[in-house]
Amino acid sequence: MRKSNSFWCPALIIILLFSLSLVPLSISYSQESDSAVQAEVIIQKLTEAEGAKYWSLTRQLESLDKKALPAVTEGLQAPQAYVRLACARASYKMGRKAEGALTLIRIIQEIKSNRVKIDAAEQLAGLVKDDDGYGDKELVEGSLESLLDVTLEPEVRLSLAKALYNVSATARAVREIKELLKLKDEGIRIKAALTLAQMDHFEDSLPILKKLADDPTEYGHLARVYLEYKRLQDAYQRKVLNTRKFDYAVLDEILTLIKARYVDPEKFDLEKLMTAAAKGIAKSLDRFSDYHTELEKKRSTESINMKYGGIGAYVSMRNDYLTIERPIYGGPCYKVGLRSLDQITEVEGESTRSKNISDLINKLKGDPKTPVKIKVYRRGWAKERDFTLIRAFIQIKTARGEMLPGKIGYLLITSFGNTTAQEMEQVLKGFQKQDIQSLIIDLRSNSGGLLHTVVKMVDMVIEKNKVVVTTKDRVGVVDRYVTRRDNIIDMPIYLLVNEGTASAAEILSGALQDYKKGVLIGTQTFGKGSVQNILELKSTNRDTALRLTVAKYYLPTGRSIHMDGKGNGGLEPDIKVELPERKLWQDQESNRILDAGLLDKYITRHYDAHKDVLQKLADSDGLDQKKYPEFDDFYQELLTAHNIHLTQNEVREILRVHIRRYVADERGSEFLTDLQKDVVLQRAIVEATKGLGVVTETIPEYKIFAHKFEKEGAEEPVAK
């Protein structure tokens, strides 16, 4: 078994060890011998050589001049993996860099032996370090990332990550090696720590390096050298900081003065003051950087994972009380019979009236399988009722879909969490079974999420080896994310966006817009083109974190959508659709009708007798109030008893909204769309039907808005 040198060293170590490399190599051929003949002889010997002899022959081969290239090129096709490896190195050294690099990659791809894979990856890492002349960088980078996607053996992953880092110092390479620090295998953890030190990433490797430094081994010696390098580096940074005018002792002095002289000494809470200082420092940088307390860090994790322990309800404050806007169907709330618009008047004996909604939500959340006591009032009940709910893990799907008439798929994405890509793929596969012809992706008010998730999602609609997004930190390119597989759908795509569409949602929208794979419909997006990392703070035992802007991202065409504070930024939609202006006085009248219980009375009176009719009206009523049972009597009652100032059409809209709530609660599933009311969705449907060559009004569900946009849009479809 042959073994390669697994570590390269930074400049400091190279200086320390330089003298060791000055050992002359003995070549058993005269200088006048033909290089081609020498190469053939060496390659023949390589077929049986092992250990030090093998590497000596490899060095002899790569020291030959270019006359040896024909023999070396032929050796690249040899059946023996290690002969190919030696010839790949020689080819690279002789100027055929692309050929040598790609041969090493093919060896890793084709050979099953982990030892061969490791040696090939290590050789590639060494060759490409500080060298960008090996051909298609994106191809090499993409190949290494693809290999990491399918490789499980830790030591092979380490070598691949090292090679990837040397090709382009990507964040993924560092992440992959950091993951290896978590393994139980001490040998792998040591190698991973030393590799991170080589990359000048000491944060996670220091504990292992300090422990290793006591060992009288080669690894121990390397650890001591790296630690000394880190000590010198830190000393230099401290020297630079000490030359600045700002003295960090000012914070201590401020705290001392507050403690000694502040007028209300009982308000002196050191932890709160330090939290305020930390938040102030972070937020002074930009609007996205922040210091997260323990509770805020926990909420952030829950938000990304969309998984937490709670009662399972979307809530708001209505009429000064915590109100269930909609139960999460299947959750604890729904299972005990609570429904939309129920008021939670108490949580654990404390009134919810006029309280901070975040504080109330935190009271409702907790560890799964723990109880929480609440009081609930519903219009029509004589008094409040007590409920004891058992909290459960609430897993919220972030990608949901339904098939619309005309073979148009509607996909709603609410955020980009850990499971969103898998959920999206499941929805798309379901659409394909229903012969989908066109896709609408709704990203409105989607504030973003995980970068790696959105890359996977773009991968489903853009062919492989295409750049999705590039991130650049303070020194240059950090990561270039590219698609890795053939797209699973190829059809017209329409993306619904608004001023709340931000971050990862803008990457998805922008990438599809750049590649002309998607038409953006709606209003200008938010314009968040920066990347934040959650950095756990060791000073608080990782209980708190710094949310820090570490990079900016750029779309495939190189454009940045980051808002500059002057209104410049975001994505401009291809088709602009403004929402109708809301009339606040109508909302007030609507709330009066709701609070009076008249909508509940109407449903109680008619639902059982006209169940099928009302359920159809929930989907669409054709803008016709006459379809509602006894609507004229209901409207007259509102006029005479409650002196409302709404037209029959406005009352119809209010009644339909309430019926939709009731129907959703009864069937235990939400309405994803409202074809009758959603103007932006309507425009997308019109464009989708045009693109498919279908006359919109021939589909009954679309007839009421088929000609709505004729004055705004062209007769020809925007996307085909």
Secondary-structure map:
Elements: H1 11-17, H2 35-46, H3 51-62, H4 69-75, H5 81-93, H6 97-110, H7 114-128, H8 137-150, H9 154-167, H10 171-180, H11 186-198, H12 206-212, H13 218-242, H14 249-261, H15 270-283, E1 290-292, H16 294-305, E2 307-310, E3 313-318, E4 321-327, H17 332-335, E5 343-347, E6 350-351, H18 357-364, E7 371-377, E8 385-390, E9 392-395, E10 399-404, E11 408-413, H19 420-433, E12 438-442, H20 451-458, E13 467-473, E14 476-482, E15 493-497, H21 504-514, E16 518-522, E17 530-536, E18 545-554, E19 575-576, H22 584-595, H23 598-606, H24 611-619, H25 631-642, H26 648-667, H27 679-691
Parallel strand pairs: 11-12, 12-15, 15-16, 16-19
Antiparallel strand pairs: 1-18, 2-9, 3-4, 4-5, 5-6, 5-7, 7-8, 10-11, 13-14, 13-18, 17-18
Summarize the structure.
With 720 residues, the chain is of the alpha+beta class.
Please tell me about this protein's structure.
The radius of gyration is 33 Å and the shape is globular. Strands 3, 4, 5, 6, 7 and 8 form a 6-stranded antiparallel sheet that branches. The two termini are 59 Å apart. Helices cover 45% and strands 14% of the residues. Helix 8 (137-150) runs antiparallel to helix 9, helix 9 (154-167) runs parallel beside helix 11 and helix 12 (206-212) packs across helix 13. It has 5 domains: 11-129, no CATH class; 200-244; 307-395, Roll (Pdz3 Domain), CATH 2.30.42; 399-576, 2-enoyl-CoA Hydratase, Chain A, domain 1 (Alpha-Beta Complex), CATH 3.90.226.10; 584-667, no CATH class. Residues 1-32 and 714-720 have low confidence and may be disordered. A hairpin with a 2-residue loop joins strand 5 (343-347) and strand 6. The longest helix is centred in the first third of the chain and has 25 residues, at 218-242. The chain is α+β, with helices and mostly antiparallel strands and 720 residues long.
